[in-house]
Design a protein that fits this description.
about 130 residues, alpha+beta, 2 strands, rod-shaped
C-alpha cells in the first residue's frame, strides 16, 4: 500500500452538477420574475384605483352647487355648497373604497369653485 489515492469520476456523472445548478438558478430566476411582475401589477392597479376614486369623488363634490345663487345670477356665477360638496365627496370615497375592495386614506378640500380629493390606497402586506 502506498500513500497515494485515486479519485475517479463515475462514467455517467459528466456535467450533472452543472445541470442541477442551472436548473436551480433558472427556478429562482423564474420565481423572482413572477413575484416582481405580480408586485408591479398590484402597484399599478392601486395607483389607477386611487386616481379613479379621487376623480369620481371630486366630480360628485363639484356637482353640489348652490342652486339659489346660480339662479339669482342667471347662470353666470357658480358657487359650490362647501358642506354639501365635502359630504358628497366623503360618501363617494367610502362607497368606492368598498366597491374596489381596498383600504386607504383620503382628504377633501373645497376652495372657491374647486373640489380637490386626494386618495392614498394602502398596499396590504401578504
Amino acid at each position: 500500500m502506498t500513500g497515494e489515492s485515486e479519485c475517479r469520476r463515475g462514467r455517467g456523472d459528466r456535467g450533472s452538477a452543472m445541470a442541477a445548478a442551472l436548473l436551480v438558478l433558472s427556478a429562482f430566476t423564474a420565481g423572482g420574475l413572477i413575484w416582481l411582475s405580480r408586485d408591479v401589477n398590484r402597484t399599478v392597479s392601486n395607483r389607477s384605483a386611487a386616481q379613479s376614486i379621487a376623480f369620481q369623488a371630486a366630480r360628485a363634490g363639484a356637482q353640489q352647487v348652490e342652486v339659489g345663487a346660480l339662479r339669482a345670477s342667471a347662470g353666470t356665477t357658480v358657487e359650490i355648497d362647501e358642506v354639501g360638496a365635502r359630504a358628497e365627496a366623503e360618501r363617494i370615497v367610502q362607497e368606492l373604497f368598498r366597491s374596489y375592495g381596498v383600504e386607504g386614506t383620503h382628504s377633501v378640500a373645497v376652495v372657491g369653485d374647486r373640489v380637490t380629493v386626494t386618495v392614498t390606497i394602502e398596499d396590504p402586506v401578504e
